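To make this tangible, we now present a fold written out as C-alpha cells:
***
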Amino acid sequence: MKRPIIGMLALCSSVIAMGETVDVKTLEYTGPYPVQIPLMFDSEDVNSRKFDVKSLLDTHVSQATSRNPVMFSGDVAPGSDDAYALHLLGFTVENRHYSKASLNVKGLKNYNVYVDGRKLEGNQLVLTPATHKITVKYLSEKGKSDSIKVSLDSEHPELLKIGTGTSRMYTLDDVLHGTRISSTSISPDGKYMITSYYHTRKGGAYEYVYRISDVATGSVVTETSEAIKWMPKGSRYYYTRNTNDGRALYAVDVATGRRDLLASDIPNEWFTISPDESYLMITSVQIGPKESPDVYEIIQPEDRQPGWRDRYMLAKYDLATGVQQPITFGHNSVSLSDISDDGKKLLVRTSRSRLTSRPTTLTSLYVIDLATMTSTPVVENDGFISGAVFSPDATKVLASGSPESFDGVGRNLPEGRTPSMVEEQLYLINIADRKVTPLTKEFDPNIQQRVWSRADNMIYFTAENRDMYSLYRLNPANGDITMIPVPEDLVKGISLPDAGRTMAWFGQGASNSDRLYKLDTKTLKSTLIDDPVKDQLKDVVLGECRPWSFKSSRGDSIHGRFYLPPNFDPASSYPMIVNYYGGCSPTSRNFESRYPHHAYAALGYVVFVIEPSGATGFGQEFASRHVNTAGDGVAQDIIEGTKQFCAEHPYVNTKKIGCIGASYGGFMTQYLQTKTDIFAAAISHAGISDHTSYWGEGYWGYSYSEVSMANSYPWTHPDLYVKQSPLFNADKIHTPLLFLHGDKDNNVPVGESIQMFTALKLLGRETAFVAVADQDHHITDYGKRIKWQNTIYAWFAKWLQDDPEWWNAMYPAKSL
C-alpha cells in the first residue's frame, strides 16, 4: 500500500496574498478505504444505465472518521494495493468576511469535493464567515496513480486563511445547533433527577429527550421522548398519553419500573397533581363571546389579543372516582398559585382590569379551604405583585412583586422617585393577620426563581446580579441572605427535593454553554454532572471576555464587559460593536443569545456590552432610572462609556464603531443617533421610534408604559412622548441606520420602523429596512433567523469593515 508523506498533525496555515493563486500544499489524509465492484445481476440499472466504476465515489465514507489523519504534501495522490479504494484529502478555509473563490483540483481522474459535508457542484465556493472544511474524496485503482494539485483563486485572497487541523471559529451554527438543557427536576425523595434536553439539527428539526439519572452515582437510568414529571411523593414520574378511552395518566416507579394507570379519561387541559396524590387541580378554559370575523367590536385595548375574552377557572378531578368538581366560578379568571402540602388548601390568584389609573390591573390572592369551600383573602387589589407560594406549613405566603407592592413597604428609594415595576422583591405574608414583611428591601439583585425548601426550611432563589443570574439562600427566621458560590455566571434553573441535601441546577457562563450540576446544601459545593455541548465546542477558539466598568460624569459606577477576537493582537486596530439592554433587564452573560457576542468577536470585532441606567439587577435606585426618562441618562451612559472604553483601549478603531439593540434597545439605537456622531453604523431591531404611537398600538404599549412612563401620558407629558421620540428628531441622524422588524410584531408594531425609515429616506440619509415575514417580536423561524443574523453581519461588514460584498449579495441594488 502506498502511503503519503507523514508529518505531525498540527495547525498549518498560510494567509493568501493579494492577487495570487495559492497552492494548497499541505492536506490531511485518511485512507485507504477499500471498495468493491458490486455483483452484476443485470447489465443495466433501473434507469437503463450501465455500471460506471466512478459510481464507487458515492460509497459513503464518514468525513468524521475515527482514523487519525496524517499530513500529505506530495505531488502524487496516495494509492492502494486494493483493486479500488477511496481516499480523503482535506484542508480548512477560514474567512472572517463573506468570500468567493474557485477551487481547482488537478490531476485526479475520479473525485468529488465536499464543503462542510455537502457535495460541491462545480468549483465555485461562496463562503459565509466560518472555518470551512474542504474534503476531496477520490477513487484509486490498483496499479495506477494520479498526480494531485489543489489551489484556490479569489478576487480577495487576503481574506482567506488555508490550514489544517481541528481548531475553528465560533459561528451561528454553534448557537443554533446541538444539545441544550431546558429544565432539571429532582425527585421528592432526592434520589433521582429528570433532565430535559432539546437537540436541534442542521435544517431546524429538533427533538426533546427526558433523561432520568441516579443522583448518587450519576448513572443514567432511562431516557424517553415522553414529557415526564415527578409525582409529588417518592420517586415516581408521570406522563399522559392519548388512548381510545381518552387522555390517560400513568405513573412509573423508577426503581422497579412498575407502571400504574392513575386515570384513563382526564380532561385535555393543564393540571397539577395534589401533594397527597389524590386529585388533579384542573385549569379549565371558558371561551368568551365571539365576534363576527368580518366586522367586529374591540371593547378595550387588550381585546385585540387572541384569547383575551376567554376566562380560566379551577376544577378538582378526583383520581379515585373520576368526578370533576368545579372549584371557582366568575367573570374574572382564577389561576392556581400553590397547593398546601396536605392537599387541603389552595392559594389562588385573580385579577381585574382598571384602566383609569395606574396600575391598570389589580390582583388579589385567596386561600381556598377545599373541605368547607370557603375563601380567605390574603391580598386584595394590589397591582404590583407577581407571584406567590405557600410556606411549608401553609401559615404564610412567600410573594414576589415590585417595590410598590403592599403600599410600598419594600420601597427603598429617594422621595419622589417611582420604582421600576419589573424590579422584583420578596415579601413574607402572615395569613392569619395579613402582616407583610419585606425580605429583600436592602438587597440589590432582582429576584427571579424561588423555592421554599421542605428539607431545611430555607428559601433558595436566583436573582439578576448585575449581568449574572446568581444563587442565594434566605433564612426566613431571621432574614439573612447568603450568596451561594457556583461555577457558572448564569444559574438558569434550580430544583430541590422534599428530603435530602441535594439541589439540582443548570447554568452557563459567558464563554460556555449549558452545564448540569448537583449542589450539596450543607457544604454549598457543586459537582458537575453533564456538559452536553462539550464535544461540539471542543475545537472552537474563543476570544477572552473581560469585565470593564467606568465612573460616569454623574458619579455612577457603570458596569460592562467586552469580548476580544480570537488570536487578539493589541497592536492591531479593530472595529467595535456596542450592545445594550432591551426591555429593562441587563444584557446578561448568556453564551447563546439573540446577539451571540462571541460570534461577533470571531468576525474580528471587539464587542462592548454596557449596562446603563435603568437596568434591573443593580438595585431599586438604579432600576428606577428607566422610569419617566425616555432614554435620557441611558444614552449618556452609553456615549460616555463608549468614549472612555476607546480611550483606555487604543486597539479600538474609533472611526469604526457600531451599535445594536432590540425593542427598548432598538429605540435606544435610534435615540443615540440623535445625540452623537461616534457611531459609524447602527442597527435597530423592533425599535420604538415614536412613544405616542407605540403607547397606543402595541399589544402591551400602554401597559409597558406603566413601567417606563409611570403616571405620564401623551397628553400630560409631551416632553417625554414627543420631544424624546427619535421620529421627532430624525433630522439629527446622520449614521447609516438599518431597521429590522418582524412584520407580525404585536409588541412593537412594524410601523415603528416604517415611519422612521420613511423619515430618513425623505431626509436623504443612509438607511435600509429589512422586514421578516410572519415573525413577531423575536425571530424564531430557523431559516429566517439565519438570514436575519446574516443581514446584521453584512450591514456591519459594509460600514465597519469597508466590505459591502455580503450586503450586496444579499440585497443587490435594484433600479426602481
